[in-house]
Design brief:
The complex is a heterodimer.
Chain A lengths: L5 H17 L3 H24 L8 H17 L5 H23 L4 H21 L9 E2 L11 H21 L1 H11 L1 H6 L4 H27 L1 E2 L7 H13 L5 H19 L4 H15 L3 H17 L1
Antiparallel strand pairs in A: 1-2
Helix pairs in contact in A: 1-6, 2-6, 2-9, 2-10, 2-11, 3-4, 3-5, 3-9, 4-9, 6-9, 7-9, 10-11, 10-12, 10-13, 11-12, 11-13
Chain B lengths: L8 E10 L2 E11 L4 E5 L6 H8 L7 E6 L2 E2 L5 H7 L1 E3 L12 H8 L7 H15 L14 H14 L4 E5 L7 H18 L2 E5 L3 H7 L2 E6 L2 E6 L1 H6 L1 H11 L3
Parallel strand pairs in B: 3-8, 3-9, 6-7, 7-8
Antiparallel strand pairs in B: 1-2, 1-4, 4-5, 9-10
Helix pairs in contact in B: 3-5, 4-5
Classes of the chains: A mainly alpha, B alpha/beta.
């Protein structure tokens, strides 16, 4: 907990927020929103990777957050901030129940259960008339006063939550997660309740994913089941792998790069899914520690030569 | 609370079957306070199964397990470890990507207290094991002998009443073996902790153990002091004869 690199965080967040102040073009604003939400989703996925699990249910929890917020605004007429928070809380609560049942499994089994859960929840929305069926929900607006500042607001909330996950990672709890990833059996023999720790990790990550979903709902004003297929988790995995999973900046860098490149690829009429798949393969083959790992090695090589 | 001279661990008719194979059959043995008990036997004798049974990783098919006077038959590894029975594993019983300090610190996670007390405990444990110079090193990068000591460090950092070590001497050179045996004796003499030692290194077992339990084909073959075991005809036939064939 001693070295949280706070100046770097404040500088990075200030830079990101300043950039959003300059955005006055609606298309660029939507790309900025996408980047912030993607970074938060990827940070959530990476947080579960700390304990060694690939959590494809991330996509489901983004969707649950979005739908909870959508229902709170359009059906219950809740105030803005309460609706936003509800997305995170509902995703977190569902993840505790889901995690209690499924976190006894590991590796490919856990991944497949998460995948199946995501698709099952998506089908559930499309069959539910209260939630708008296949066409989804419309009219999820932030307060009019905030409308012009949405990119700034979304960026600020994402930065705050990513920082929160980072603080957890650097705490004793983070060390416990690393221990579970490295050697679950040893962690168990020293009196750690492994399942409880895993659920706590999962719940924290799912809260962040749920808020990412809420932000998505407010940014787009419209949500539909198709927005929350397993592809959301696959994209998040691409951001993490391209950016580098070794540190918390990785998913952010990966999101910035891939969302910008992906928006460009969309403009070309290309299939963005192929683009993302290709990015994962390339990153794994050519950049084992992602772009941030490459930058770190480059920096080390340069400073070594300077001496 | 149990009396001071009562056994720390008792098994009664402990049995574990895997399909048609009886890995451990009707095993009775006990571990007494302040002793180093050796558990030996040829490969496949049921040592590892016994280890997994008493630490809660396997549920017995039949029989009973008493730890510190309480019936722990069928209890989870978590419950048993929290009572003060801590085990290591034969292979890679540590967190490779974490520092030695963080490895041992993990051992203090339950029942030691808060920050300062835990750090004190890590320093004390590292000092006893001779790991102080390596505290900042990544555990997975250390030489094999030191990794073995880190495993013991994690387990002993919780100051268990019964420490169960699964082949801690495998792959160590003579100096490292002697060093580890001294550590085991200090754990017994200075901390009053009993040690269950599963080990193939006969010379080491004979020199350090107070008593020895011999398993053969999942069954109890003999119990006694090293001198008694050395003189036991059954044991020589089953096991020692092959190993000490000079």
């Amino acid at each position: 907990m001693d070295n949280l690199k706070l100046p770097w965080w404040l500088a990075g967040t200030a830079f990101a927020l300043a950039a959003t102040f300059l955005v006055r073009d609606a298309y660029i604003a939507s790309v900025v929103n996408l980047i912030a939400i993607a970074a938060l989703t990827a940070a959530s996925l990476r947080f579960v990777m700390l304990m060694g699990e690939l959590n494809f249910a991330t996509a489901a929890f983004v969707g649950i957050g979005a739908y909870a917020t959508g229902a709170a605004i359009t059906i219950l007429n809740w105030p803005f901030l309460a609706a936003l928070l509800l997305g995170g809380v509902v995703a977190c609560l569902v993840s505790i129940v889901f995690g209690y049942i499924t976190l006894r499994t590991k590796g490919p089994y856990f991944l497949l259960i998460g995948f199946a859960f995501t698709e099952a929840v998506r089908i559930l929305y499309s069959k539910s008339s209260a939630l708008g069926g296949t066409s989804g929900m419309i009219g999820i607006f932030p307060p009019a006063a905030l409308d012009a500042w949405m990119p700034t607001f979304i960026m600020a909330v994402s930065a705050l939550l990513i920082f929160g996950l980072y603080v957890l990672e650097r705490s004793d709890f983070g060390k416990i997660l690393t221990a579970i990833r490295d050697n679950e059996n040893v962690a168990r023999t020293v009196g750690l309740d492994i399942l409880l720790c895993k659920i706590a990790c999962f719940a924290a990550a799912s809260f962040a994913a749920g808020i990412a979903g809420s932000l998505h709902a407010f940014a787009n004003n419209v949500i539909s089941p198709g927005d929350f297929s397993f592809l959301v988790a696959a994209f998040a995995l691409a951001y993490v792998k391209v950016g580098g999973e070794d540190n918390v900046v990785g998913p952010v860098v990966g999101s910035v790069l891939l969302v910008i490149l992906g928006s460009y690829a969309l403009g070309l009429g290309g299939q963005e899914h192929i683009f993302y798949g290709g990015a994962i393969v390339l990153a794994v083959l050519a950049l084992p520690h992602g772009v941030t790992g490459l930058a770190k090695r480059g920096f080390a090589a340069l400073s070594g030569r300077g001496r | 609370m149990q009396a001071a001279d009562q056994p720390l661990l008792t098994t009664k008719g402990l049995t574990r079957r895997f399909g048609g194979l009886v890995a451990v059959s009707n095993l009775d043995f006990e571990i007494r306070p302040r002793e180093i008990l050796g558990l030996i036997g040829p490969n496949g004798a049921g040592k590892s199964t016994t280890f997994n049974l008493i630490s809660g990783f396997y549920k017995p098919t039949a029989g009973e397990l008493f730890v510190f006077g309480r019936n722990c038959t069928g209890k989870s590894p978590l419950a048993i470890s929290r009572m003060g029975l801590v085990r290591t594993f034969q292979h890679g019983s540590l967190m490779r990507s974490m520092s030695v300090r963080d490895n041992i610190l993990l051992g203090t996670i339950h029942g030691v207290g808060r920050g300062a007390r835990r750090r004190e405990r890590v320093a004390e444990t590292a000092e006893m094991l001779g790991l102080t110079p390596y505290l900042a090193d990544e555990a997975g990068t250390l030489p094999h002998g030191l990794q073995r000591l880190v495993s013991i460090g994690i387990a002993f950092a919780a100051r268990p009443r019964l420490l169960c070590l699964d082949e801690p001497l495998t792959g160590l050179n003579q100096t490292e073996v002697a060093n580890t045996l001294t550590v085991l004796q200090r754990i017994r003499d200075e901390f009053g902790c009993s040690v269950l030692l599963v080990e193939h290194n006969m010379k080491a077992v004979m020199s350090v153990c107070d008593r020895i339990v011999v398993l053969h084909h999942g069954q109890h073959l003999a119990t006694g002091t090293p001198t008694e075991i050395r003189a036991n005809g059954n044991v020589i036939d089953a096991y020692l004869g092959h190993r000490h064939g000079h």
